[in-house]
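A note from the maintainers: we've had questions about how concatenated examples are separated. There is no special marker in the raw files; a new sequence line simply starts the next protein. For clarity in this README we add a label.
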Amino acid sequence: MAAISAVGLTKSYGDKAVLRGIDLSIPAGSVFALLGPNGAGKTTAVQILSTLIPADAGSVRVAGHDLVRQADAVRKAIGVTGQFSAVDHLLTAEENLMLMADLNHLRRREGRRRAEDLLSRFELTEAARKPVATFSGGMRRKLDLAMTLVGEPEVIFLDEPTTGLDPRSRRTMWEIIQRLVAERGVTIFLTTQYLEEADQLADRIAVLDGGRIVAEGTAEELKRIVPGGRIRLRFADAARLAGAAALFDYATADAETLVLDIPGDNSVLTVRAVLDALDNASLQAESLVVETADLDDVFLTLTGEGAR
């Protein structure tokens, strides 16, 4: 069953079209990442899907509920963590969670139980009674996500959740997100500008540019649709480098590093053909590295100037 489905979703502000008829189908219990440059419409998509703003056109269902006719049911089924922390810095971590429990109309005992469970799960128990103003950025982000989980949502929207975090804190957040899906079966809708984040977390990725989805698939599927793969050979001297460069069309030689880059699809047959050609010419490389296209290549090729 699709946790989120959208058909023909559009949104404009005056003469500026932000979303131009996007379609989505996101299976329950999966992580979906929406990539795109600044201004592509990622945050607008999250705001519409989480009932914060209305769409101009299109139909949407979230957790089995119609976004317009059953908006209250959608709100009960979702949690949202925005780009900026929503915690109250004057309260303690425990008080922030109890506040969310009250907003979710939980009984006092149940609210306290969930707060204690979330503080333990996010490794915030020791800081539970400290003011949030004393927390590091990573701790605030963890508390922000913990507050989203007080209502036990089926679908969680994470709008650039690791922006501004150091690499260690970012990886901690990745582990938390992966556990949420594995242990609780929630659906994660993630927007991010960190391509490694999407590669690590997402079951499927969509690339949004100019208000349109220009590509969608798994990380590996997206990497295969753009050029970027290459075979990199390093030689012992300039003579061998020049001899090898003459064997391959479109190869690029770097005389300073003695490296030859050969564009290719990186299949076993291609690598074998390269080695056979070198062997027939009695040339031997010092090293061989096969490099595949990454999401950076996908992003740069499909968005902005690269797309044009």
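[label: protein 2]
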Amino acid sequence: MAERVVPEPRRRRRRPTKQGTVLSERIIVETALSLIGQHGAEALTVRRLGAALGCDPSALYRYFHNTDDLLLAIADELIGRAQADWQPTGDWRADLRDIGLRVHAAYQAHPQAAMLAAHRTTGRDHEARAVEKILGILRSAGFPDPEAVRIYHAFVDQALGFAALDAAELALPAPARSADLGVWQARYSRLSAATHPNIAATSRLLEADMRQSGYPFALELLLEAAATRLRPAC
């Protein structure tokens, strides 16, 4: 896309597209998410979006500067979906746990998009609200500002890092994903205790545990570590 986005007040397309759709930023983002989910990153082009929306590709210039601008909007939409209907409980650990699991789940629902967007900083409304919420939880819990910022950084990077890692696994073709999981039984369960005593002792546990995301347990470790740092601060 070229750098010729139309100013906000003049963006609305008054006539529907060939498919009867009235264009909006939200409609474009939702269509882009659907295309990426079906066809991967290569679907994020003006031509394919225009065809899916039933409009001339140039109409997209009214909403986004370029495809990277659209990608940031997609990333922000995933953040927004993670926050939908969230309500604080007043328990900082429970609230952070809920937010972290919501973020992870929102990205797992769109693994192809997650691989493209999990590492991006959008600067958009949903992201700003999420940053404000998380910092508010930490500061209200009693963490000094420098500590709140450090824990925020670790918390968000952990959530998004696992989201991207687990999304990459989900995006694998089914045979490849099944083969990867099968390695724990086909290879590691057969290693000799003489050469690999620790693997041999835990192979059944490894096989079972590696079939699920490590994020929930990693999140608990982070929250527990944060709690131990809060006690001296208080």
